[in-house]
Design goal:
The complex is a heterotetramer. Chain A is α/β, with parallel strands linked by helices. Helix content of chain A is 31%, strand content 23%. The chains are: A alpha/beta, B mainly alpha, C mainly alpha, D alpha+beta. Chains in contact: A-B, A-C, B-C, B-D, C-D.
Chain lengths: 707, 343, 316, 506
């Protein structure tokens, strides 16, 4: 346990005063045509003034339901079935609609996941903001305006006057989220609920918002509930944490207690399935939690986590499991009847650590690859002016190579051209310039239809969205079989079927999935089928475009692990596209950092994650929330938004946001590609010595101790 | 955990088996093919004619049971299906019901629920101005509307979907061209288009099919094009492209099955519109031709002979009949949408 | 915006040229001309229509000229505002059409004047609380009314109000000048049929808006329900119905045909049908022209209105 | 000819004034000589007038002609014209005007259907492939006497002169008539909107503003308004009180009409449906086949089924009981057995034939065909009915082997016979060609005296009936309706309007 890991948060005040919010044995159900869905059962929570409480859990475990229940806004079909809900000591369930209206938005405010969706598209920001004081405090227009303006400045929005007049769609996602937060803070609420406030944002933007939230907590003395599925974020923002699983709180306590001395197998499973900085795929592989989250109406008897638990004993499913206090930690409780018996420091039982595998010959060589999109502006005016065609420079001069059995990760913020590169490689788009040599064929300019089946088969792809990756109208088997036949691996009916079965085995799916339709599969299972399909043609290179970013952490681990395993055994080259740097660090051999279509840094994983950094890489790294309390991180918050690819800035592409900008040169000249060591290259004007002198972003406790 | 989720009684296995897509398809064919042949080929069927509709009756009944079972979640859909299947059943069983000859003049202007002046025939719904039995004409009258309405809608969908897929998937010039012609057709008000086309081709069932296709296909094309534009950016389409599938394969096997869902709801609505259109056209003298009974014709004929409160049953009966059929289609569409939104 | 409108107008011109060309092509077929000749010579004349008579008729009507020449001339004439002459009525098409359009305009005005408030209010009330009894009732009324074809509505209204109760005239020929009582049934018929459609669309739009997150935000801001509806929901919910209502103008041109024919109301729809049945090509051409112009104009209006109403596009 | 001055008797209590509103199709009024619809002539009838007038009893009276006299062999007709008749433009009406009109009708370039009438076709000769008026065929003796010299005997000259396109126009006439409506009638055209309204006003002034007096008795009505309604909707317009009378309603509407307040007027006519067979086309070239078909049909059953018991039973010889010269032959008997036997003899048992039906005069055509189908079935003949749009039927009416053609009313029985059944007749749709028939018809046509002519009609009718050229099952009645204010309205079998004596009670 290390209290001093981060910037010190106000220590959890164990106060005797009335908590801002107290939920006691709260049970919430939804009523659907399938019957009652008990979404949340026996939920307890206390929030004190100035305290930030985090709620984590996988998708569907009831986090949002809790938040909405606190707002007393359950929709048509939701109902609080039992329990108490006290706001400042007063029972909210007994309040009338009028009283609730008085509380909502004034004493209790909420921020949601999708900032764009939660702002009214047809109203100016100022109107939406001013409503709050106008309604709750009955102030005049002018004062409301002033207060809104001041609050916008408080949430660090540039040019608040302009933003006041703007419509939501005219400002960026990060700004929108700040507006929503400003709206929530306008009436100085006693309790602020944040439901995944940053999930829809890029990491660099997320970092800014997280900073803001931390600041608010300390400045306004607001009680906060922060909902997230990201343990790292909770660690960075909260004092206390409640871990939810399948509608129940399974563990709660202070962040330090839970992160360092968890007392529930599920919490442990969560931690083991996320890559922590410093973790290595060979030494500390991710350990997925087996099985799946049960649906609310199909929960097992006794411990909900029982079927997935490594420590399961028959007693676990005997009856309902109560929350119990962890001895000697008055604030730490767990819903495990065996937490005293379990050895919490034992190494994971079946962590199959592996040897690093040697790389093979070069398989793919990308050389000066450019992809420009031309977007036609079809307005008459543009045609007359001759500006009918605008160019989107999605990829600018990519250079790298990949070897057999190597994992090359491509990282960068949204819109930096990662998917475009994948498309060019796959032949869905043709390169504007440059070469991409697979084996000994240049495929950069050959569309997929003109490629030979073998070539096509050698280059396959795993897609991001598990819900989209399979055609909902065909069975799993037929979709894999089609690939096998198409790539001419097998033609004979029986043999094709055999091969499909082998592939299902390979991705650890039961063989009877052959006849299933995608809608009968969970997200993780679909992604496995996607992997099976990608490997059906014995590919030499597999491009995985954010293959796990839409999955829950526990499933993420399983799918990532699986992908790695298959790649290793097949000695396939993997191009892993991601924005999740922890994951990249965990699994990649080589990392390519992209910004606005430019390759700004490349090198082996160790090289990229240690100084010298490209300033962008540095910022990206620092933005990654880390769930390891022993790791300390330098905070760098980037200003501004990512520029448009249609209108890139002159000189260095990163100059508009660079925290280490050195002067005019950055704005006028394209930076040189500096090489450090063998393959480590950085696109920057800053002198190599200076770059090398950068301190690392992460420091672990040992490293700090060593200093 | 006690839930009501699995508390449903186990369904009889037979019905389950019949609900399989293949079985439903066979049942639909059993119902539809004879009916279509009966209406379109008519006398040319020769000796087959009296028997051909026999298999359609049980098929229709089974389909009804299946529909009610599948849609029991939505009352709206069940009511809609009940109305539609009632008329379908009437259509397939008309020849076997104890009805008077719908074309035979017996005694004109007999009011409903009364005997004519001559003979002792009791007329449930009275007779029309020519003395033909209204009940029998009403029952027989649904055959042509249903058959031509459905055929026209189906043809319009085939054409519209095809062009929509091409425009949406291939984009570029194909899209420009198809969309432009779609716009040309769409900018004719439907009725203008109907009038022009039918006036040119002459009034007949087949020409109604053509006219409806001209009028509906562009709208369907737009819908399918929109859906295609959405679906074509799905990963599974990329997956198909990355394995080098031909555009045709992608359109038919990857896109088509997935535009099906939203289209079925739209099709129910459009069936309603087509039924309205056929009735209206027939009323205007551009649609189906006498003498065989048809609701639009019954309205047309009665509109000039029954403008008296006493005789208004001649107008009201076909008007209500066609309204119930359309209401059925609309409720079905609403219900299906409701069901699809819930999933 | 101006560019958008300009582009749409250019497109409209193109569509009109293509559409009228197709019509000319159709009307140029021999079968069609013959039909027109028979229709015009009609009565007893027809039984003696010999080939020579027919040729003479063609000459008289100038139909022997190759059709592209006629088409070119027609285009030129239209550009100068001359829409040709009606065969059947042997008058200039322009004034005739104008007169009929005026009548249909009166009809349309009242239809819209009644239908818009009725359907919007119904739609909003229904969509406001989706799934409530209020919603179910109003929705059912809306589906029900759209399910009755206009012809059936016309019949039922006539039977009840004209034949049964005798409150209103059964026909609307307006003999002896304009008479508002004769306008009631046609207007009601169109309103009843159209109201349901627009109400349904409004309801769907309202229901969708009501489930959107920003409404949730507004409610959770502690605003009173009324304020949420009026300030937050309506504006967004009415964008879609607006475009639909404008596009109803196009629909109305179809809808009036049967209503005008049934009620004997001398409007655009009746003119079109009669001309088409007669083969009165220049009248049909002119009607189509008007219809297409109205259709495209209504599209433009709806596009522009959509842009103005929807700040997301206006300020994009 | 008979001479009865019309409107001679003033009705008792008749009142002047008022507007008669009539529902009818309002059509254009281009050139009266080429009119093809009765409706057009009705709009014109009270503006421009005819030389003669045939009344509802099929009796022809003097109008612009005061009297007429044929020579013995009916080849020369002398017409005395009425004196003191003024045109609307102030001119006097003289014989030259009539000559001008006749010459115009006979000009092939005009294409008037008048040229096909017996009277006028007897004034033309063929020269070098073109028809040309014979020199001197019309001779103006003095300003009020005109002589028609015919190349063959014609009986129906006075009747032909009341054929609807034979209005006498002023020589200054230029089409369209509606632009310059100069006639001799009691009314002038006040307004015409085709498809909407046609208004006639009593003529009180000449076109140049001088007072105008109608030559005959002053009519009662101030104005006559025709409002456009389709055939189907005229009765409903009447029902809703929009009009005082209508052009006509169809049999289907009879119960409705009877239920309405007002008086239904029914006229017996010689309008009919001829289901005629082309005698030169198989299988109808076999007399036995035709006879079998005719025998199997039961004309007597038709009126009840088609016209609710109204109308006259047809006798398959196209002379109607309303015709003055109608000779009553023995009643036709249905003979199914005989039909079967004939078919067998002809080797045509199980005969299947198709009849084309265009419903050119309304859906009752089809009803007739359907009844025929049922009747023929008894004799083992299968009748298919090919229903087609009216216009389509008019395209094929002369070609189809078996078709139901509508024939309009003509005042004399011989008129149609000579048009349609005489060898080479202009409209000989059945291709009937029987010299004996021609001869008998010639004889009948040469007789002016109706009683004598009736005797001569016996062989004509008999031959035609025996040759089984057609099933002509029924003489159609026509119906119209007037409300209680309309007085002295006489419905006419050809539906022409003669409103000079009509008046309106308050
Ligand atoms: N309106 C609703 N009707 C029925 N069931 C619902 C409804 N809303 C949520 N649920 C169910 O309740 C359970 C909890 O949902 P909730 O949205 O609270 O989860 P969550 O933890 O917020 O998930 P996520 O991380 O995906 O947002 C889920 O199983 C969900 O399917
Ligand atoms: N077909 C296209 N036409 C024009 N511009 C395009 C096209 N596809 C992508 N772009 C543009 O190219 C740039 C790179 O897009 P790309 O999809 O490759 O980004 P990405 O890095 O994959 O982002 P994300 O993380 O959001 O998936 C973006 O600015 C995008 O708008
Ligand atoms: Mg949630
Ligand atoms: Mg991407």
């Amino acid at each position: 346990m290390n209290e001093a890991t981060n910037e010190p948060l106000s220590a959890a005040p164990v106060s005797t005063s009335v908590p801002v919010l107290e939920c006691r044995d709260l049970s919430i159900s939804y009523f659907t045509r399938a019957g009652e869905i008990p979404a949340v059962v026996d939920f307890n929570l206390k929030v004190h003034a100035g305290e930030a409480v985090g709620i984590v859990g996988e998708s569907g475990c009831g986090k949002s339901t809790v938040a909405l229940a606190i707002m007393q806004y359950m929709g048509k079909n939701g109902r609080i079935m039992a329990g108490e809900l006290k706001f400042m000591g007063r029972d909210m369930r007994a309040m009338g609609e009028a009283e609730l209206q008085g509380l909502r938005g004034s004493k209790i405010a909420m921020v949601y996941q999708e900032p764009m969706a939660s702002l009214n598209p047809a109203m100016r920001i100022k109107d939406q903001l001013m409503e709050v004081p106008l309604h709750h405090e009955k102030v005049g227009e002018k004062e409301a305006f002033e207060r809104a303006l001041a609050m916008l400045a408080d949430v660090k929005l540039p040019d608040p006057r302009r933003i006041m007049e703007a419509f939501p769609h005219q400002i960026s996602g990060g700004q929108q989220q700040r507006v929503v937060i400003a709206m929530a803070l306008l009436s100085n609420p006693a309790l602020l609920l944040l439901d995944e406030p940053t999930t829809a944002l890029d990491v660099t933007v997320e970092a800014g918002i997280v900073d803001l939230i931390r600041e608010i907590a300390s400045r306004f003395n607001t009680g906060m509930i922060y909902i997230s599925h990201n343990l790292g974020l909770i660690r960075e923002t909260c004092d206390r944490i409640t871990v939810m699983y399948s509608g129940e709180a399974v563990e709660d306590g202070t962040v330090g207690e839970v992160f360092n001395a968890m007392r529930h197998p599920y919490t442990q499973g969560l931690f083991r399935s996320i890559p922590l900085p410093g973790a290595d795929k060979n030494a500390r592989p991710l350990i997925p939690i087996r099985g799946q989250l049960p649906l609310p109406h199909q929960r097992p008897h006794g411990c909900n986590f029982g079927p997935r638990c490594d420590h399961f004993k028959p007693a676990c499913d005997a009856g309902p499991i109560p929350m119990r206090q962890v001895p000697s930690q008055p604030d730490h409780r767990s819903r495990c009847i065996r937490f005293e018996q379990i050895d919490w420091n034992a190494p994971p039982a079946h962590a199959d650590t592996g040897e690093p595998i040697p790389l093979g010959p070069r398989v793919l060589e990308v050389d000066g690859l450019k992809k420009y999109y031309e977007i036609a502006n079809r307005s008459l005016l543009a045609m007359i002016r001759g500006t009918a065609v605008k160019t989107v420079k999605a990829n600018e001069k990519l250079d790298f190579d990949a070897h057999e059995a190597e994992t090359v990760a491509i990282v960068g913020e949204s819109g930096c051209g990662k998917s475009t590169f994948a498309k060019v490689l796959m032949g869905l788009e043709t390169a504007t310039e440059g070469r991409a040599v697979l084996g000994n064929r240049d495929i950069a300019a050959t569309p997929v239809q003109s490629r030979k089946p073998q070539v096509v088969g050698h280059l396959q792809m795993v897609f991001q969205n598990p819900f989209d990756t399979l055609n909902p109208s065909h069975t799993v088997g037929s979709q894999i079989a089609r690939v096998i036949r198409k790539f001419d691996v097998e033609q004979d009916r029986e043999k094709v079927k055999d091969r499909v079965m082998q592939l299902l085995d390979m991705v650890k799916l039961p063989r009877d999935f052959y006849l299933r339709r995608p809608r009968q599969l969970s997200g993780g299972q679909k992604q496995r089928v996607g992997i099976a399909r990608a490997f059906a043609g014995n590919p030499r290179v597999v491009v995985a475009d954010e293959p796990v970013s839409a999955l829950d952490v526990s499933v993420q681990a399983a799918v990532t692990q699986l992908l790695m395993e298959i790649q290793r055994t097949n000695r396939t080259t993997l191009l892993f596209i991601s924005h999740d740097l922890s994951l990249v660090r965990y699994l990649a051999d080589k990392v390519i950092v992209m910004y606005l279509g430019h390759l700004v840094e490349q090198g082996t994983t160790d090289e990229v994650f240690a100084p010298p950094y490209h300033p962008y890489t540095e910022a990206l790294l620092s933005a990654v929330p880390v769930a390891d309390t022993s790791v300390e991180k330098r905070r760098i918050v980037l200003e501004g938004d990512i520029p448009s690819a249609v209108n890139p800035p002159p000189g260095c592409p990163f100059q508009t946001r660079c925290q280490r900008k050195i002067g005019r040169i950055c704005e006028t000249e394209y930076p040189p590609l500096r090489t450090f060591g063998e393959g480590h290259r950085i696109l920057c004007h800053i002198a190599p010595e200076e770059l090398e002198a950068m301190p690392p972003v992460f420091t672990t406790a040992e490293e700090r101790a060593a200093e | 955990m006690a839930t009501t989720f699995d508390a449903r009684p186990a369904a009889p296995p037979l019905l389950d088996r019949l609900s399989a897509p293949k079985a439903v398809l066979i049942l639909v064919a059993l119902m539809w093919v004879p009916l279509t042949l009966y209406v379109m080929a008519g006398r040319n069927l020769g000796v087959l004619q009296p028997y051909i509709l026999l298999p359609a009756i049980p098929a229709t009944l089974i389909l009804y049971v299946l529909a009610v079972r599948a849609w029991r979640e939505s009352w709206t859909a069940v009511i809609g299906a009940t109305l539609v299947f009632f008329w379908l059943l009437m259509a397939v069983s008309a020849p076997y019901l104890p009805l008077l000859d719908p074309n035979k003049p017996i005694a004109p202007f007999v009011l409903p629920f009364s005997h004519g002046k001559v003979g002792d025939t009791f007329f449930w719904l009275g007779t029309d101005f020519k003395g033909r039995d209204m009940l029998s004409r009403t029952v027989w009258g649904c055959q042509r509307v249903i058959v031509w309405g459905v055929t026209a809608t189906v043809v319009a969908y085939v054409v519209g979907t095809l062009f929509g897929l091409i425009a949406g998937y291939l984009s570029g010039w194909w899209d420009e061209l198809i969309t432009f012609f779609g716009n040309v057709l769409l900018s004719f008000p439907v009725m203008v288009l109907f009038i022009v086309v039918l006036n040119y081709l002459g009034p007949s069932g087949f020409n109604i099919v053509i006219a409806v296709t001209f009028a509906s296909a562009p709208a369907i094309m737009r819908i399918v094009r929109g859906l295609t534009l959405d679906i074509k950016s799905r990963d599974y389409v990329f997956a198909a492209q990355t394995r080098g599938e031909r555009p045709f394969y992608i359109m038919i096997f990857e896109l088509l099955p997935n535009v099906r869902g939203p289209i079925i709801v739209d099709a129910c609505l459009r069936l309603g519109y087509t039924t309205v259109a056929i009735t209206t056209l027939t009323f205007l003298g551009l649609g189906l031709q006498p003498p065989d009974p048809d609701w639009g014709l019954m309205i047309k004929e009665a509109a000039k002979t029954a403008m008296l409160f006493r005789f208004s049953y001649m107008l009201i009966i076909p008007a209500l009949s066609v309204s119930t059929l359309i209401l059925g289609f609309n409720l079905m569409a609403d219900g299906l949408r409701e069901i699809s939104l819930r999933d | 915006m101006a560019i958008l409108i300009l582009r749409r107008l250019v497109q409209m011109a193109l569509i009109i040229v293509v559409a009228s060309f197709l019509l000319f092509l159709i009307f140029d077929t021999d079968a069609f001309k013959k039909k027109t000749a028979i229709a015009e010579l009609g009565g007893f004349g027809v039984s003696s229509l010999s080939e020579a008579d027919y040729q003479k008729w063609l000459d008289e009507k100038g139909l022997n000229v190759p059709f592209y020449q006629r088409y070119g001339k027609w285009l030129g004439d239209v550009a100068t505002g001359d829409l040709g002459r009606s065969y059947e009525k042997s008058t200039a098409v322009g004034p005739l059409l104008l007169d009929r359009l005026k009548n249909t305009g009166i009809l349309a005005f009242w239809v819209f004047a009644l239908m818009i408030p009725l359907s919007l209010v119904t739609g909003v009330l229904a969509g406001m609380r989706e799934g409530s009894a209020q919603d179910r009732t109003l929705s059912f009324i809306a589906v029900f009314t759209t399910s009755i074809p206009e012809i059936a509505t016309a019949i039922l209204l006539t039977v009840i109000f004209a034949l049964g109760l005798g409150w209103l005239p059964a026909k609307s020929a307006m003999i002896g000048g304009f008479n508002w009582r004769q306008l009631v049934l046609p207007v009601l018929t169109l309103v009843i049929y159209d109201f349901g459609y627009v109400a349904r669309m409004t309801r769907a739009s309202m229901a969708e808006v009501m489930t959107s997150q920003y409404i949730r935000t507004a409610v959770l801001k502690g605003l009173p329900f009324r304020h949420v509806i009026v300030k937050h929901a309506l504006r967004n919910a009415l964008i879609a119905p607006f475009t639909i209502i404008v596009l109803q103008l196009n629909w109305l041109l179809s809808g009036v045909v049967v209503v005008e024919v049934f009620f004997e109301y001398d409007g655009f729809g009746k003119l079109l049908l009669e001309a088409a049945l007669f083969g009165d090509i220049y009248v049909v051409q002119a009607c189509t022209l008007v219809a297409v112009v109205i259709a495209v104009l209504s599209q433009i209006i709806s596009d522009v209105g959509y842009t103005i109403l929807n700040p997301r596009i206006r300020f994009a | 000819g008979k001479s009865l001055v019309p409107a001679a008797l003033a009705q008792e209590g008749a009142k002047k004034g008022g507007t008669l509103r009539v529902a009818m199709q309002v059509q254009k009024m281009d050139d009266p000589a080429t009119y093809s619809w009765i409706q057009m002539s009705n709009q014109t009838r009270h503006v421009a007038e005819y030389l003669t007038l045939t009344d509802a009893e099929n009796i022809t009276h003097p109008l612009l002609a005061e009297s007429w006299e044929p020579n013995d062999d009916l080849t020369e007709w002398t017409f005395k014209l009425r004196q003191g008749v003024k045109w609307h433009n102030g001119d006097d009406f003289v014989a030259d005007h009539v000559k001008w009109n006749v010459e115009r009708w006979l000009d092939p370039a005009l294409g008037s259907s008048n040229a096909g009438l017996s009277t006028f076709s007897a004034m033309v000769e063929d020269s070098d492939d073109t028809k040309k008026m014979i020199d001197g065929a019309v001779e103006v003796v003095d300003p009020h006497t005109i002589v028609f010299k015919l190349s063959k005997p014609v009986l129906s000259v006075p009747e032909d002169l009341y054929n609807y396109p034979t209005m006498i126009l002023h020589p200054s006439f230029k089409p369209p008539f509606s632009d310059n409506p100069v006639g001799t009638g009691a009314y002038t055209l006040a307004e015409l909107q085709v498809g909407q309204v046609c208004k006639l006003k009593r003529a009180t002034q000449t076109t140049d503003g001088k007072p105008f007096t109608y030559w005959g008795d002053e009519p009662y009505l101030d104005e006559i308004h025709y409002y456009h309604f389709d055939a189907d909707n005229q009765l409903t317009a009447f029902a809703s009180g929009d009009v005082d009378t209508i052009y006509e309603f169809s049999i289907e509407q009879l119960p409705l009409a009877e239920a309405l307040p007002g008086q239904v007027l029914e006229v017996r006519t010689a309008q009919t449906l001829c289901c005629r067979m082309q005698v030169d086309k198989p299988p109808f070239d076999d007399l036995r086949v035709r006879q079998a078909i005719v025998k199997a049909c039961d004309n007597a059953a038709m009126p009840a089924l088609v016209f609710q018991g109204r109308g006259d039973i047809g006798e398959n010889h196209h002379v109607a009981p309303v015709h003055p010269e109608y000779y009553q032959l023995p009643k036709l008997e249905r003979d199914v057995e005989g039909a079967k036997k004939l078919l067998e003899e002809a080797g045509k048992a199980g005969l299947e034939v198709t009849i084309d039906i265009g419903n050119t005069d309304g859906p009752w055509h089809q009803a007739v065909a359907e009844i025929m189908r049922d009747q023929l079935k008894d004799a083992g003949i299968r009748l298919n009915i090919n229903v087609m749009p009216a216009s389509k039927y008019w395209e094929i009416w002369t070609q189809t082997p078996f078709g139901g053609t509508a024939w309009t009313h003509r005042p004399l029985g011989t008129q149609v016979l000579s048009l349609a059944y005489r060898t080479g007749g202009a409209w000989n749709e059945s291709h009937y060609d029987n010299p004996k028939f021609n001869e008998a018809l010639d004889k009948a046509e040469a007789e002016v005296d109706v009683e004598k002519r009736r005797e001569l009609m016996q062989p004509v009718e008999k031959i035609l009936q025996d040759d089984a050229v057609m099933v002509q099952p029924i003489w159609r009645p026509v119906f119209t309706i007037i409300n209680d204010t309309v007085q002295d309205y006489v419905a006419h079998p050809t539906e022409v309007h003669q409103f000079n004596k009509v008046w309106l009670s308050a």
